[in-house]
Amino acid sequence: MDERMIEAAQTGDIDLLYELIQNDPYVFQRIDDVPFFHTPMHVAAAAGRVEFMMEMINLKPSFARKLNQAGFSPMHLALQDNKTQAVLQLLKFDKGLIRVKGREGFTPLHHVVQTGDDDLLIKFLKVCPEAIEDVTVRNETVFHLAVKSDMFETFQVLVGWLMRSHHESAQRWDIELLSWPDIDGNTVLHIAAIRNRPRVYANFLNQ
After folding, report:
1. Is the domain of 149 the same as that of 169?
2. Which residue, 93, 122, 146, sits at the end of a domain?
3. In angstroms, what CA-CA distances link 85 with 140, 163, 199?
Protein backbone atom coordinates (compact mmCIF):
# COMPACT_ATOMS: atom_id res chain seq x y z
CA MET A 1 0.00 0.00 0.00
CA ASP A 2 1.19 3.53 -0.83
CA GLU A 3 3.11 5.10 2.06
CA ARG A 4 1.01 8.25 1.71
CA MET A 5 -2.18 6.21 2.10
CA ILE A 6 -0.79 4.73 5.31
CA GLU A 7 0.08 8.24 6.47
CA ALA A 8 -3.42 9.49 5.63
CA ALA A 9 -5.01 6.68 7.63
CA GLN A 10 -2.66 7.04 10.61
CA THR A 11 -3.19 10.79 10.85
CA GLY A 12 -6.86 10.82 9.79
CA ASP A 13 -6.16 13.09 6.83
CA ILE A 14 -9.30 12.84 4.69
CA ASP A 15 -8.09 15.52 2.25
CA LEU A 16 -5.01 13.44 1.48
CA LEU A 17 -7.23 10.38 1.10
CA TYR A 18 -9.21 12.02 -1.70
CA GLU A 19 -6.08 13.41 -3.30
CA LEU A 20 -4.77 9.86 -3.55
CA ILE A 21 -8.10 8.64 -4.94
CA GLN A 22 -7.98 11.36 -7.60
CA ASN A 23 -4.52 10.18 -8.58
CA ASP A 24 -5.58 6.53 -8.66
CA PRO A 25 -9.37 5.89 -8.75
CA TYR A 26 -8.85 2.11 -8.67
CA VAL A 27 -6.67 2.03 -5.57
CA PHE A 28 -9.31 0.43 -3.33
CA GLN A 29 -10.51 -1.99 -5.99
CA ARG A 30 -7.02 -3.45 -6.28
CA ILE A 31 -6.85 -3.82 -2.50
CA ASP A 32 -10.26 -5.50 -2.42
CA ASP A 33 -9.10 -8.03 -5.01
CA VAL A 34 -6.47 -9.32 -2.57
CA PRO A 35 -8.00 -11.92 -0.20
CA PHE A 36 -6.07 -10.74 2.87
CA PHE A 37 -4.83 -7.16 3.14
CA HIS A 38 -3.98 -4.57 5.79
CA THR A 39 -6.32 -1.91 4.43
CA PRO A 40 -6.45 1.81 5.26
CA MET A 41 -9.46 0.96 7.43
CA HIS A 42 -7.30 -1.40 9.50
CA VAL A 43 -4.73 1.36 9.94
CA ALA A 44 -7.33 3.96 10.91
CA ALA A 45 -9.14 1.62 13.32
CA ALA A 46 -5.90 0.73 15.10
CA ALA A 47 -4.99 4.42 15.34
CA GLY A 48 -8.44 5.42 16.57
CA ARG A 49 -9.03 7.75 13.61
CA VAL A 50 -12.78 7.38 13.72
CA GLU A 51 -13.79 9.96 11.09
CA PHE A 52 -11.31 8.58 8.57
CA MET A 53 -12.45 5.04 9.33
CA MET A 54 -16.10 5.97 8.76
CA GLU A 55 -15.18 7.76 5.53
CA MET A 56 -13.56 4.52 4.41
CA ILE A 57 -16.72 2.61 5.29
CA ASN A 58 -18.72 4.96 3.06
CA LEU A 59 -16.29 4.40 0.21
CA LYS A 60 -15.60 0.68 0.65
CA PRO A 61 -17.88 -1.01 3.21
CA SER A 62 -16.45 -4.45 2.41
CA PHE A 63 -13.20 -3.46 4.14
CA ALA A 64 -14.97 -3.61 7.52
CA ARG A 65 -15.05 -7.43 7.31
CA LYS A 66 -11.74 -7.93 5.55
CA LEU A 67 -8.97 -9.75 7.41
CA ASN A 68 -5.39 -8.58 7.13
CA GLN A 69 -2.44 -10.91 6.58
CA ALA A 70 -2.26 -11.58 10.33
CA GLY A 71 -5.90 -12.68 10.40
CA PHE A 72 -7.48 -9.62 12.01
CA SER A 73 -10.38 -7.37 10.99
CA PRO A 74 -10.45 -3.61 11.70
CA MET A 75 -12.58 -4.24 14.80
CA HIS A 76 -10.08 -6.80 16.10
CA LEU A 77 -7.32 -4.19 15.80
CA ALA A 78 -9.36 -1.41 17.40
CA LEU A 79 -9.98 -3.71 20.37
CA GLN A 80 -6.34 -4.72 20.63
CA ASP A 81 -5.30 -1.06 20.75
CA ASN A 82 -8.09 0.00 23.14
CA LYS A 83 -9.74 2.32 20.61
CA THR A 84 -13.21 2.03 22.11
CA GLN A 85 -14.83 4.82 20.07
CA ALA A 86 -13.69 3.13 16.87
CA VAL A 87 -15.16 -0.15 18.11
CA LEU A 88 -18.51 1.48 18.93
CA GLN A 89 -18.73 3.21 15.55
CA LEU A 90 -18.02 -0.06 13.77
CA LEU A 91 -20.71 -1.68 15.91
CA LYS A 92 -23.22 1.00 14.83
CA PHE A 93 -22.36 0.37 11.21
CA ASP A 94 -22.80 -3.40 11.40
CA LYS A 95 -23.51 -5.35 14.59
CA GLY A 96 -22.47 -8.50 12.78
CA LEU A 97 -18.85 -7.36 12.89
CA ILE A 98 -18.57 -8.77 16.41
CA ARG A 99 -19.03 -12.24 14.86
CA VAL A 100 -16.28 -11.91 12.26
CA LYS A 101 -13.90 -14.81 12.83
CA GLY A 102 -10.26 -13.89 12.69
CA ARG A 103 -7.10 -15.75 13.55
CA GLU A 104 -7.79 -19.12 15.24
CA GLY A 105 -11.51 -18.43 14.96
CA PHE A 106 -11.46 -15.62 17.52
CA THR A 107 -14.21 -13.03 17.18
CA PRO A 108 -14.27 -9.53 18.70
CA LEU A 109 -16.65 -10.94 21.33
CA HIS A 110 -14.04 -13.53 22.27
CA HIS A 111 -11.49 -10.73 22.64
CA VAL A 112 -13.55 -8.73 25.14
CA VAL A 113 -14.18 -11.90 27.15
CA GLN A 114 -10.46 -12.71 27.31
CA THR A 115 -9.55 -9.17 28.34
CA GLY A 116 -12.39 -8.83 30.84
CA ASP A 117 -13.94 -5.77 29.20
CA ASP A 118 -17.37 -6.29 30.72
CA ASP A 119 -18.78 -2.95 29.53
CA LEU A 120 -18.16 -3.83 25.90
CA LEU A 121 -19.24 -7.42 26.52
CA ILE A 122 -22.66 -6.25 27.71
CA LYS A 123 -22.99 -3.87 24.74
CA PHE A 124 -22.04 -6.63 22.31
CA LEU A 125 -24.51 -9.13 23.74
CA LYS A 126 -27.28 -6.52 23.77
CA VAL A 127 -27.01 -5.80 20.04
CA CYS A 128 -26.07 -9.29 18.85
CA PRO A 129 -26.94 -12.00 21.41
CA GLU A 130 -26.44 -14.75 18.83
CA ALA A 131 -22.69 -14.07 18.95
CA ILE A 132 -22.56 -16.07 22.19
CA GLU A 133 -22.79 -19.23 20.05
CA ASP A 134 -19.51 -18.64 18.22
CA VAL A 135 -16.61 -20.95 19.04
CA THR A 136 -12.90 -20.84 18.24
CA VAL A 137 -11.03 -23.37 16.08
CA ARG A 138 -10.37 -25.22 19.36
CA ASN A 139 -14.14 -25.40 19.89
CA GLU A 140 -13.95 -23.03 22.86
CA THR A 141 -17.03 -21.06 23.87
CA VAL A 142 -16.96 -17.67 25.57
CA PHE A 143 -17.34 -19.57 28.85
CA HIS A 144 -14.20 -21.64 28.19
CA LEU A 145 -12.29 -18.48 27.33
CA ALA A 146 -13.40 -16.62 30.45
CA VAL A 147 -12.27 -19.46 32.74
CA LYS A 148 -9.03 -20.11 30.83
CA SER A 149 -8.21 -16.39 31.01
CA ASP A 150 -9.00 -16.24 34.75
CA MET A 151 -11.73 -13.68 34.11
CA PHE A 152 -14.12 -14.86 36.82
CA GLU A 153 -16.14 -11.63 36.95
CA THR A 154 -16.60 -11.84 33.18
CA PHE A 155 -17.69 -15.46 33.58
CA GLN A 156 -20.28 -14.28 36.11
CA VAL A 157 -21.48 -11.59 33.71
CA LEU A 158 -21.93 -14.20 30.97
CA VAL A 159 -23.80 -16.65 33.20
CA GLY A 160 -25.96 -13.86 34.64
CA TRP A 161 -26.78 -12.56 31.18
CA LEU A 162 -27.70 -16.05 30.02
CA MET A 163 -30.01 -16.61 32.99
CA ARG A 164 -31.79 -13.27 32.48
CA SER A 165 -31.99 -13.41 28.69
CA HIS A 166 -35.42 -13.53 27.06
CA HIS A 167 -33.93 -14.57 23.72
CA GLU A 168 -35.79 -17.45 22.10
CA SER A 169 -32.59 -19.56 22.19
CA ALA A 170 -31.58 -18.72 25.78
CA GLN A 171 -32.77 -22.01 27.26
CA ARG A 172 -30.93 -24.01 24.59
CA TRP A 173 -27.78 -21.94 25.12
CA ASP A 174 -27.97 -22.56 28.86
CA ILE A 175 -28.06 -26.31 28.29
CA GLU A 176 -25.61 -26.54 25.40
CA LEU A 177 -22.95 -23.91 25.98
CA LEU A 178 -22.27 -24.58 29.67
CA SER A 179 -21.73 -28.28 28.91
CA TRP A 180 -20.01 -27.73 25.55
CA PRO A 181 -16.73 -29.69 25.14
CA ASP A 182 -13.70 -28.00 23.64
CA ILE A 183 -11.38 -29.77 21.19
CA ASP A 184 -9.87 -31.77 24.07
CA GLY A 185 -13.28 -32.82 25.35
CA ASN A 186 -13.20 -30.47 28.33
CA THR A 187 -16.31 -28.61 29.46
CA VAL A 188 -16.14 -25.40 31.49
CA LEU A 189 -16.36 -27.44 34.71
CA HIS A 190 -13.49 -29.66 33.56
CA ILE A 191 -11.35 -26.58 32.91
CA ALA A 192 -12.28 -25.20 36.32
CA ALA A 193 -11.25 -28.49 37.96
CA ILE A 194 -7.95 -28.65 36.05
CA ARG A 195 -7.11 -25.07 37.01
CA ASN A 196 -8.52 -25.31 40.55
CA ARG A 197 -11.10 -22.56 40.20
CA PRO A 198 -13.64 -23.32 42.97
CA ARG A 199 -15.54 -20.06 42.38
CA VAL A 200 -16.61 -21.38 38.98
CA TYR A 201 -18.11 -24.44 40.68
CA ALA A 202 -19.86 -22.21 43.20
CA ASN A 203 -21.32 -20.17 40.37
CA PHE A 204 -22.87 -23.29 38.85
CA LEU A 205 -24.29 -24.43 42.19
CA ASN A 206 -25.89 -21.02 42.75
CA GLN A 207 -27.77 -21.06 39.44
Report:
1. yes
2. 93
3. 28, 29, 33
Q: Report pTM.
A: 0.93
Please classify residue 16 by burial: count the beta carbons closer than 10 Å to its beta carbon, then call 0-12 exposed, 13-18 middle and 19+ buried: middle
For residues 112 and 77, state if they share a domain: no
Q: Are 171 and 163 in contact (CB under 8 A)?
A: no
Q: What is the CATH number of the domain that holds 63?
A: 1.25.40.20
SS3 170: helix
Domain count of the chain?
2
Q: What does the alpha-carbon distance between residue 60 and residue 80 come to, in Å, rounded to a whole number?
A: 23
Q: What is the pLDDT along the chain (207 residues), one digit of tens a residue?
A: 889 999 999 999 999 999 999 999 999 999 999 999 999 999 999 999 999 999 999 999 999 999 999 999 999 999 999 999 999 999 999 999 999 999 999 999 999 999 999 999 999 999 999 999 999 999 999 999 999 999 999 999 999 999 898 889 988 998 899 899 999 999 998 888 887 777 776 666 555
